[in-house]
Every structure is written in C-alpha cells, then in structure tokens.
Design brief:
The complex is a heterodimer of chains A (599) and B (412). With 599 residues, chain A is mainly beta. Chain A has one helix and 49 strands. The two termini of chain A are 44 Å apart. In chain B, strands 3, 4, 5, 7 and 8 form a five-stranded antiparallel sheet that branches. Chain B has three domains: 163 residues, Immunoglobulins (Immunoglobulin-like, Sandwich); 104 residues, Immunoglobulin-like, CATH 2.60.40; 130 residues, Immunoglobulin-like (Sandwich). Helices cover 11% and strands 37% of the residues of chain B. The chains are: A mainly beta (599), B mainly beta (412).
Chain lengths: 599, 412
C-alpha cells in the first residue's frame, strides 16, 4: 500500500504558453503555419519581451506579412515591430498575462495563426505550491487527476495548456464462483497521491458483470463488493492498472460462522456482524433467532470484528480491533459474548429551549464509548476483550416523549436536535449525562447562538453577497442541525444561527463579489448569545487561468477545476480554495488566493 | 480694316450679343433673377447689352462676352447637409477674344417663406482662376443652395451662370442593443422571463446633423402577458435605455422610431425579443457520480468522504459561480439533506450545508448502516419539484436534467 510515485498525477503536461493551431490557408499542398516564441518566456515586470513568429512554409513562396496584436487584460498594448517584421518587442510595464496573437500570409497563402500567453510576474513574487484537480465530466474520457503547480503572487497568471493524462481504460467482467457474472461495486483508490488524496474511482458492475473504469497509470487498491452476500468482498491492494483489465474472478471466500450471545448465554438476534480481514470487509451477516450467523470473508488477517445489535436491545456495539493478529480461514468460528452490563431505561421528556414546551420530533442521540470489557470475541477459540460503543438516536413522539430505551450505564454525550417542526431559534444542545448516576427526567433544546461579523476585502471594503457557512467541528460534526448559513448583506454583515458552545469551521465563498474563499475556525458562545467575530478579511485573490485539453488535443469542456491549497485549511492542511468549470474551449478562470509579494 | 467696317462689324456683334443676351438670361433659372435683384453687379449684363445694341458711343471693336459655365465636380445628383461641394469654371472661356478671364464665385442658401424665396450668402465670394475649385462652406441645412459664377474678361464683359442645388434629407440611423443583466452569450439565444431586459440605443446618429427625436413603443406582447405585470419604461432619466421586465414567455416586440422632422426623415427599428421561461438548473457533475446504479461503500478505515456537486449548468445561475466579470447573473443554490441512523431514518435538512459539498465520516457509523444523502439545486425561480419526496432523483423536465440527485451509501 505504500507510496508509489506521483507519476500518474504528474503525467499532465503544463505548458507556459498555450498554442492554438489554425488551419492551413492554402490549397493544393500550399500551407504555412506560424508559431510564436517569446524571449524571455517568463519576464518580470518592466522587462522588454520580444516575440518572434516562426513560419513554416510548404509549397508556397512570396512576401511575408504579419498582423500582430498584443493585449493585457483585454486592453491593447503598444509594441514595436522589429525588422524584419517577424519579430515584435514590447515592454511588460505591468505584471500580468500578456496575450500575443499573430496572423500572416506568405505570398497569397494565408497562414495558420498563433497566440501565446506570456506571464509577466512581479519582482519578488512569492510562489506557492498548490494542487489543481481536474475532474472530467465523462469519467471514461480521462480520470480525475491532480496537477501540482506553483502560483506566483501579485498578478494574474496563466497556466497555459493543461493536457490531461489519458489514463488507462480498465474494462472487465466481474465473475463469481463457476465463472458466473456477478453484479457489484468496484472502488479503485489511487495510491500515494499525498497531500491531497484523489477520491477513488467507482464503478458498478451490472447483472452481466461488465464494468468499465478509467484509471491513472499508478497502482491502485481495488475494492470489489459483490452484491447479494454470497461472495466475499475482495481487496486487491497495490494492483497495477494493467492487471485489472479483463475478467475479475472471485471465489466465494471463506465461510465463517459463529454466534452472538448475551451475558446469560442467551442468543442475541438481529445483530449485524461483520469482519475486516486483511483490509477487506466481509459480507454482512445478521444473527438469527438462535444468535447464529454465517458470513463470507477473504481468508487471512489481521481480523477486526464489529457487532451492531438492534437499537433498543440495551446492548452496545462491540468492536474488536485488528491488533490481535488473528486470522480466519474457511471454517473459522467466531463466538461473541456480551459482558453483563447494567442498563438504564431512559425516557426523558424532550422540550424546547424554554424547558417547558414539548418538542415533538426532536432527535436525541446518545453517544458513549469506548466501554471497556463490554464483551468478548473469540476467533477460533482465542478470546479477546472487545470494547463497547453506543450511538443511538431516538425521536421524540407527539408530546415530546422520548421512547423508553434501555442503554448501558455509562457516561454519555447527548445531542438534542430540533425536529422539523421546531420553532425558529431552537438549536442543538449537547449534554453530558452519566447514566450510572441516574436517568434524566427531561432534555431540552438550546436557544441558538449566533456568529456575527462583517466581511471585508483586503482594502477594508465590505463584501456583499458572499456565502458564509459554519460547519460544526468535534462532536457536533455528526449533527444535521448544528451548522448555519447566511449571505452577507450589502454592508458585508452576516449573522449565522448555530448551536451554542461549539467550534465551527467558518467558510466564506465570495465568488459573487469577485473574491475567493477562506476558512477559519471560530467558537460560538452560549445559548442565545451572539459572538461578534468583527471584521473577517477575505484574502486578496488573483486570476488564475488556463486551458484543459484531452490527451488527443481536444478541448475538455464542462470539466470541474478545483484548486487546493496545501496548508490553508482550518486544520492547517489542504483545502479547496477555488472552483471553476471549463468552458466549451476548455478555458477556465479561478480566483486563487494571492500568495503575495515579498517586501 | 476700315473704321466703318469695324463699326459695322462691332454693331453686328453688339446686336448678336444682344440677341445672345436674352436667351442667356432666360437660360438662367429663376433664382438667378431673384439673385440679381439683390446683387447689383448682375444688373450690368443687360445694361451692357443695351449700350452695345445702341452702338452710338462705341468706337473700338465690340468685345464678346465671356462664356460662364458652372461645372459641379462633386459627383451624384443628391446632396445633403454637411456635404462640401466642389465646382469649377474650367469650361468657362472667352474664346472669341481670347485672353484671360476672372471668375468670381458666390454661394447662397435660399429659404421659401410665404411663397417667396429669399437667399443669404453662404460664405464669402471668392475669385478663382477658371480651373480653380470652388468649395463653398458645407451645406448648412436642407434649404437649396444656389451657386453663382461670374466671369469677367479683360474688357470688363461679364457673364454669369448659376446652379441650384436641391438639398435632400437622410433619415437618422440607430441600432438597438438588448441585454439581460449579464446573460451568458451562447448559453441561450433567448432571454428569461421576469429578469429585467435593458434595450439601449446604439449609434443613434443623423447623418445630416439634424436634431433627432426618439419614441419608444412596446409594440407587441405574448398572448399570455398581463399588461399590469409588465414593467416597461426608461431607466432613470436616461431615455436612451428602456427596461422591460417580461411577465410571460414568447416574442416581445419593441419599436423605436427616430425622426429628424423632415420629409423621409424617420427610421423605425423593430427588435424581436424572444423570451423563454427560466430554465431549471441541471446538476451536471458530482463526485462521486450520481445518480449511481447502486450503493457507494464507505469503509470505516478510509476516513471521511466528500460528496460534492462540482457543476450545475443553468442559463443564468450556474454553479460554481464564475468570476464577477463573467456573463452570468448568479449562482445556483444547493440544499442538502440526509437520512440515516442519526436522523431516525428520516430525511432531514443539513443545516449549514449550503455549499457544494458534504463530508460523511463513516467512523461515526456501524457496518451495515445505510445513509441517503440528497442534494437539490435551484436557481432564482422557486419551483416545486414534481417528484415524490422519496424519489432519489427528480427532473422537472422529465429528461436528463436533474434537479435532485441522491447518493445511497453503505458503511462497511
């Protein structure tokens, strides 16, 4: 699984200058084409740049004539034609992207035109490493891929032509025991694409077992999950792409049986049992009335086991990690027995934040764990202690009544979330409740807290129409109701209702204002409190443009272009900072964070 | 040659000149006569003819009058204000006597009021050699211009020619530019209902320099339009731009008439504005791809997984929103909801998930948990999705343009 090279991701071709060839202008074998060469190719502001038209002529002759155009940000730039007129010179008096185009004739033959983009950088520009992620609309045209780029600060920058790697087509048929076609799910995760891992490539094999993938030319971990539970899933770790093409035949895997019993030895019915053996999940088994189960798994180890009892059983989820070194084989038996855990039945009244009004539809999630010694799992007779975890959600009934639910006696974090009919201003409350001490008589929602602030740009001007969202961190990350979203008003002000007392990843998307994105971690105050964040300054952005092309040279239209920073995330890690979609010509423009200029 | 003979010849010539004078004068058009009334120098011609006819005082050879002929160098039969015309007298001569002639040019503009025409000088009179080019000042108005040439030989004999130039009128020119906010060129060939459309005058110009008045008319509306729901009028105090807020799809017709007030001085430009219903946004690209024919599997060992909408296409509000200088108006809104064990199985909105992605952490789940993650896209128009709430996908048009997609996720 260890790192193979980034070769696949880096197989993209980055050209500093894009070149677009036109058609030849002549008939009967007469043709000429012009290509432009700039010197210096990457000037610094203030430098003079010369651009020469290199003309290739076939079957024609005559006087050569050129028509030049130089522009910066759409405005024409004065240039000087140097004799002979196949060369021009201009001063890059401002930093930015200079567009130079030329058309010409040789005798009566019209030549193909050419154009280039020349980046004039700011002296002292800071270069920042970033990742450009390209996701084609058709996943079979080219795989999603990353390009590591350096973005200079201080001025717009054009990446030129980005030609995608074609990747490798993987077409095959998934087959089960006896060669029968097998429907299922396939997931290929490219290896070692740090620091911004590419998402896996997925495919679904139909009833005929046929599947198609297009993958980067690097090793992949291929997970195959057959439908139906008759054949064990398989993980082909570090598989070369070429080895994946063609039939993919799986045997049924090892048959593993066992039972789940409670502390009294009584069977536990309806529990979901699953393994992870050697990194590959097993099929999912559900215990019968007698507590027995049977599943299929790939032989080997290490083996992790999870037992998820039915909600309301009063039993925790049992987890046995893969640290024991156990392995499984055909015929392995797994005996799972819960320890004697005292339970307490909870049935609190769930109320609104006023503590009095019933909150029908409110959700209460009980989270506990790990609970040491919650049970014992024996693989082929070798017992190990398993930890217990509880994560159970109950929905309050019509009168705000929590259904009576037995839970292991333990310390809990309890999330109380408003239901769909909750009044505005009701929000999530997090409580710590120790069921060893007793069960709560009531639980209540919290009055929403508020995060307020004013968005400004780097010049201090208010930023309107920006989308501000607060995504909860920590325990509340699993809540569906804790976050908030708002649009900044004309004065740049925003106010986000959020769950109180939690930390948030505050994200700002100011594309509507011609600015970029940013993220920062903030904390919310207590119930009903507003936390003033003051001025939130959006970082300056620069226009980062480019053009994506398919391996054959055709424009890649409608592709997603995402720019990721490597260390600007709320956690100091990578984060997406700009997003665009390529147009019909494959062109894209991103508003990238400006790395700046060193003083 | 004896004096008597000379006298006889001179008399004959004088008589011939007198005979010539009458047709010469009658040849000149009426305005010339009117000009003569206001230009005393022109009265010399009949006076000289009378003296020559009498012959009693004349002792030398009788001088033939020079020939005066105006030649218009500026081509074309029609002329308009602002035009500078050119004339020459090169066909004028004093052939019988030889010798040089001097040519004096004058130009007049003539107006008719109460049936009487009066003329005023147009610039200064100038004296030019016969082959000189006379360029009076540019034609100032639509009134006729009369050009007069007076040719004088060395002996003082004078002939005149006049030419009347009728001045035509050209209608004003104008173009209209239709713009709907910052609508994307090429995205659609029509405009979108309820979104303001601005129609602006472009290149309004009267080639003759006349003052132009402009009238705007909403000439036709689609059958489904309610006049009370249509906003139509000038933008602020700028009558060069009108705003139309169409309330119904169909073809709208705007007529703009520009007139300089003269005959044939009206131009009407008709603009057909096709207006469509706002197109529903289409979720065009997601990661992982959705809808999928099966469940996506999240392994708890793999860590959090991002589910993202990478592209929404729309006529006005795509997602992500391109930079501000793009031709689009806004961005599609995305709303997310989730159903899973943590929601009691009910589909509930994800508060604060208004952006393009949602992250699911499988570590918070048990193997076998199933989650449905749903995203819906909408643009500036509030539309009810015509699908059962439980349907994982939905398309208003019933085609491949989806406004709702879902991911079915199984935790393992």
């Amino acid at each position: 699984m260890s790192g193979l090279a980034r070769a696949g991701a880096l197989a993209l071709v980055l050209a500093a200058a894009s070149s677009c060839a036109g058609g030849d202008g002549g008939d009967g074998g007469e043709a000429c084409s012009i290509s432009l060469v700039a010197s210096p190719p990457a000037p610094v502001r203030g430098q003079f740049v010369s651009v020469t038209a290199m003309t290739e002529v076939v079957g024609t002759s005559g006087a050569r004539s050129y028509t030049w155009l130089v522009s910066l940000a759409g405005e024409p730039i004065v240039f000087e034609v140097i004799s002979p007129d196949d060369t021009i010179s201009f001063q890059a008096s401002e930093a930015g992207v200079y567009e130079v185009s030329v058309s010409g004739t040789v005798g009566a033959t019209v030549c193909s035109s050419d154009e280039i983009s020349i980046n004039a950088t700011v002296p002292g520009a800071v270069f920042e490493d970033m990742v450009l992620r390209v996701v084609p609309r058709d996943p079979l045209a080219a795989p999603a891929q990353d390009l590591f780029i350096e973005v200079p600060g201080g001025a717009p920058y054009d990446l030129g032509a980005v030609t995608l790697s074609a990747g490798v087509a993987v077409d095959g048929v998934l087959r089960g025991p006896g060669g029968a076609p097998l429907a299922g799910y396939l997931r290929a995760a490219p290896l070692a694409l740090e620091p911004v891992p590419l998402p896996p490539v997925e495919a679904f094999a139909g009833a005929d077992g046929a599947f198609s993938l297009r993958l980067l030319g690097v090793a992949h971990d291929l997970l195959v999950m057959p439908d139906g539970g008759e054949v064990a899933p398989a993980l082909l770790a570090g598989a070369s792409v070429t080895s994946l093409d063609g039939d993919l035949a799986l045997d049924a895997g090892a048959l593993v049986t066992g039972t789940v019993t409670d502390a009294s030895g009584d069977p536990v019915a309806g529990a979901r049992v699953s393994l992870v053996a050697g990194g590959a999940p097993s099929t999912l088994a559900v215990t019968g009335a007698d507590g027995s189960f049977a599943l299929r798994a790939r032989p080997g180890g290490p083996v992790a086991v999870t037992v998820a009892p039915e909600p309301g059983s009063g039993l925790p989820r049992l987890e046995l990690d893969a640290g024991g070194g156990a392995a499984i084989a055909t015929g392995s038996e797994i005996e799972i027995q819960y320890a004697a855990l005292a339970t307490r039945t909870v049935s609190p009244a769930v109320r609104l934040s006023d503590g009095a009004t019933a909150a029908p539809g409110a959700r209460v999630t009980w989270i506990a764990g790990p609970i040491a010694g919650a049970g014992q799992i024996a693989i082929d007779g070798a017992p190990r202690a398993a930890q217990g975890h509880v994560r159970l959600t109950a929905v309050a009934g019509a009168g705000g009544a929590h259904p009576a639910t037995p839970l292991p006696r333990s310390a809990y974090h309890v999330l109380v979330e408003p239901g769909p009919a909750a009044p505005e201003g009701e929000s999530v409350r997090v409580e710590e409740i120790d069921l060893v001490a007793g069960a709560p008589a009531s639980l209540s929602l919290a009055a929403a807290a508020e995060l307020t602030g004013t968005l400004v740009d780097d010049a201090g001007a208010p930023v309107a129409a920006a989308r501000v969202t607060a995504a909860p961190l920590g325990l509340l990350a699993q809540s569906t109701a804790a976050g908030g979203a708002a649009i900044s008003d004309p004065d740049g002000r925003f106010a986000l209702p959020v769950a109180p007392g939690a930390d948030y990843d505050l994200r700002v998307d100011a594309a509507a204002a011609g600015l970029g994105r940013m993220a920062l971690e903030v904390g919310a105050g207590g119930p009903g409190q507003a936390t003033a964040l003051g001025e939130v300054a959006l970082p300056p952005v620069l226009r980062l443009s480019g053009e994506v092309a398919l391996p054959g040279g055709g424009a890649l239209a409608g592709a997603s272009i995402e720019l990721h920073c490597l260390a600007c995330g709320a956690d100091g890690g990578p984060a997406p900072v700009a997003q665009a979609v390529s147009d019909a010509a494959g062109r894209f423009v991103l508003l990238a964070p400006d790395p700046g200029v060193s003083p | 040659m004896s004096r008597d003979r000379d006298t006889s010849v001179a008399l004959r010539r004088a008589a011939r000149v007198a005979r010539r004078s009458a047709p010469a004068l009658s040849r000149t058009c009426d305005p010339a006569w009117r000009l003569q009334r206001s230009a005393p120098v022109l009265r010399l011609a009949p006076a000289l003819a009378g003296i020559a006819a009498a012959g009693c005082l004349y002792t030398g050879p009788i001088n033939d009058r020079p020939r005066a002929e105006i030649e218009k160098l500026t081509p074309g039969p029609y002329h308009y204000p602002r035009q500078v015309l050119e004339f020459t007298a090169r066909k004028s001569s004093d052939r019988e006597d030889g010798g040089g002639i001097s040519c004096t040019w004058s130009a007049f503009t003539c107006t008719t009021e109460g049936g009487a025409e009066s003329c005023a000088p147009l610039g200064e009179s100038v004296e030019l050699p016969p082959d000189g080019v006379f360029r009076p000042p540019a034609i100032p108005s639509h009134d006729p211009v009369v050009v007069q040439l007076q040719v004088r030989d060395r002996s003082g004999a004078v002939s005149r020619d006049t030419m009347r130039i009728e001045v035509g009128n050209r209608p004003p020119g104008l173009q209209l530019q239709v713009n709907q906010g910052a609508q994307a060129p090429g995205t659609t060939e029509s405009y979108v209902v309820t979104v303001p459309i601005e129609i602006s005058l472009r290149d309004l110009v009267d080639p003759d320099g006349d003052e132009v008045s402009v009238t705007w008319q909403l000439a036709d509306r689609p059958a489904g339009s309610d006049p009370n729901q249509v906003e139509w009028g000038p933008v602020g105090t700028d009558s060069d731009t009108y705003r139309l807020v169409p309330d119904a799809p169909g073809v709208w017709r705007i007529e703009v008439t520009a007139s300089d007030g003269f005959e044939q001085g009206t131009t009407t430009v008709t603009e057909q504005i096709p207006v469509d219903e706002d197109q529903a946004p289409c979720i065009a690209l997601t990661a992982p791809a959705a809808p999928a024919p099966g469940r996506h599997v999240l392994s708890r060992e793999d860590g959090p997984r991002r589910f993202a909408v990478l592209a929404v296409t729309d006529d006005l509000d795509p997602y992500p929103r391109p930079p501000r200088d793009s031709p689009y108006l806004g961005a599609a809104e995305l709303s997310w909801s989730l159903a899973g064990p943590q929601t009691g199985g009910a589909l509930v909105p994800l508060a604060g998930a208004g952006g393009g992605d949602v992250v699911i952490d499988p570590a918070a789940h048990a193997p076998g948990d199933r989650i449905e993650l749903r995203v819906e896209a909408r643009d500036r128009v509030d539309r009810a999705l015509p699908c059962d709430p439980s349907a994982p996908t939905c398309s208003i048009g019933g085609d491949g343009c989806l406004q709702r997609v879902s991911w079915e996720v199984e935790i393992r």
